[in-house]
Design goal:
Layout (H helix, E strand, L loop, with lengths): L32 E2 L9 E2 L5 H34 L1 H37 L3 H28 L1 H6 L5 H16 L1 H16 L4 H23 L9 H25 L10 H33 L3 H37 L3 H28 L1 H6 L5 H33 L4 H12 L1 H12 L1 H25 L13
Antiparallel strand pairs: 1-2
Helix pairs in contact: 1-2, 1-7, 1-8, 1-10, 1-11, 2-3, 2-5, 2-6, 2-9, 2-10, 2-13, 3-5, 3-6, 5-8, 6-8, 7-8, 9-14, 9-15, 10-11, 10-13, 11-13, 13-16, 14-16, 15-16
Length: about 475
């Protein structure tokens, strides 16, 4: 079947003048306008009302959702570190770099769908947004099946590249192999989450995750330790509990989207798929490169033994709290920017991103102070090994320098994604991250693990400053990209 021709107006970042957004009603109680259009009554317009209130209202549930996932990951690391030991913690720490790579591909769908669907909601073309959601889900699940199968077939090679000790490799393969089996459902949740966020609804995915995370928190020790009638799965049980969290949320999320008529399934429209991939691909490339860089950094870190590998994992677990706050505000910024551009409100989009950045950086400053002053205490949560605790504390004190700027990086990267301008942040972030390989190798020979930790911290700070410069530059206001036909 021949694909329908795309009208020229669909290649602009803003809708035609005949499609104003001024008619959208506003609810003065929360500063967010609700577009009442029949079955799409749950779609919230983000193009009017107080910007500070809008950012806060959309961001807080998104932040809460990301922190829920971080809470589970932290508790998961606690059980692995205290019951399986430093080798188990190192196994999860090294596995997570491949998990990041997998998740980066899921974020390609998430970022692309957010930009496309938010733009359609901003133009009040809700049915077109629903069809984009259906196509994105198909793409997400199909992509996960392929990547999961490739990963399972090459587990030995994935750990061989990192030169991990054999005892760490055995545990890592067990954890990562189990995780890869659940990849299709995990990818599916990314599409569900983006569908709600693009519609201005961050509360529903939060409630979905709340129930699932609470259940998974109880399930984690049961499966790891084999409590009651459950089998003792060890480190594989940690992966099963992780899969459970997003898988159940995905299933229930699809049901809710269908009831609200916010998703339409059918034969995939390639124009939609191409638009999602075109916007989201640079973000995926950034994440894949980032993960590969850590694979090579792990090779450098491995030279200093298992305590250094475990400390790298502990540091990431602690940093993930402030990191996820930035992700939450970035998700809100992406939705607001996308809808505002769809409604032709460029100035509002620009201000929204800066307000979200200010929120994230303020919280990041508090997190940095906590990381620095409580470094040893935080390291002791995950292990009782004094060598791991000491190395973790060193990592956290050095990493605290860049924690505040992580918020700026993540929020503005999300905002640029909402605008469909993902290529410049990819180039900038990738360049700074790639520099970690030679810099870490050089610094490690002179200052040991401290040299590695300083390399990670300073390049992270540089990415935050670079994203602020990109947003200020304003290229995103002029970018053109193809979207879906109505």
């Amino acid at each position: 079947m021949t694909e329908p021709a795309l009208p020229a107006s669909l290649f602009d970042t803003r809708p035609p003048d005949t499609n104003p957004a001024a008619a959208l009603p506003m609810d003065p109680r929360d500063g967010i306008a609700t577009a009442i259009t029949g079955e799409y009554s749950s779609v919230k317009s983000l193009v009017s009302g107080s910007l500070t209130s809008t950012v806060a209202t959309v961001a807080l549930p998104a932040v809460a959702s990301t922190l829920l996932m971080t809470l589970f990951a932290t508790v998961d690391a606690f059980w692995v570190g205290t019951r399986i030991g430093p080798r188990g913690l190192a196994a999860v720490s090294t596995s997570i770099f491949w998990v990041w790579m997998l998740i980066s591909c899921a974020e390609m769908v998430s970022v692309g769908l957010t930009a496309v669907a938010a733009r359609r909601h901003g133009e009040r073309r809700h049915d077109a947004a629903a069809r984009a959601v259906g196509d994105a889900m198909f793409l997400a699940v199909a992509l996960a099946v392929v990547l999961g199968a490739l990963g399972i077939a090459n587990l030995d090679s994935l750990f061989g590249i990192m030169h991990t000790p054999r005892e760490v490799t055995v545990l890592g393969e067990r954890y990562l192999g189990t995780y890869l089996l659940g990849a299709p459902l995990i990818f599916g949740f990314f599409a569900v989450d983006a569908a709600f966020r693009a519609a201005g609804d961050t509360r529903t995915p939060f409630l979905l995750l709340l129930g699932c995370v609470l259940a998974a928190l109880a399930l984690d020790p049961v499966l790891i330790l084999g409590l009651g009638p459950a089998p003792r799965l060890g480190i594989a049980g940690a992966a099963v509990a992780t899969i459970f969290t997003r898988s159940v949320a995905f299933v229930f999320g699809v049901v809710i989207l269908m009831r609200r008529k916010m998703v339409r399934f059918g034969a995939p429209v390639m124009a939609t798929v191409r638009a999602i991939v075109r916007v989201g691909l640079p973000t995926a490339v950034t994440g894949v490169v980032f993960s590969n860089i850590y694979v090579f950094l792990t090779r450098t870190t491995t030279k200093f033994g298992t305590p250094a590998l475990a400390a790298l994992g502990v540091g990431h677990r602690v940093e993930s709290w402030s990191y996820m706050i930035g992700i939450g505000f970035g998700a809100a910024a992406a939705a607001i920017v996308g809808q505002c551009l769809g409604a032709k409100q460029v100035d509002r989009a620009a201000r929204a991103a800066w307000i979200a950045t200010a929120f994230a950086m303020s919280l990041g400053l508090l997190a940095a102070i906590g990381e620095y002053t409580l470094a040893s205490t935080l390291g002791g949560i995950f292990t009782n090994d004094p060598l791991v605790i000491a190395e973790s504390a060193r990592y956290l004190r050095i990493g605290a320098i860049s924690t505040m700027f992580a918020g700026a990086e993540l929020v503005l990267e999300g905002a640029l994604g909402g605008a469909g301008d993902t290529l410049p942040p990819m180039i900038t972030s990738t360049t700074l991250t790639v520099l970690r390989i030679p810099l870490a190798a050089w610094a490690a020979t002179r200052w040991g693990t401290s040299g590695i930790w300083w390399t990670i911290s300073l390049t992270a700070l540089g990415r935050g400053v670079a994203m602020m410069a990109l947003w200020k530059w304003g290229r995103w206001k002029r970018v053109r990209w193809a979207t879906t036909p109505a």
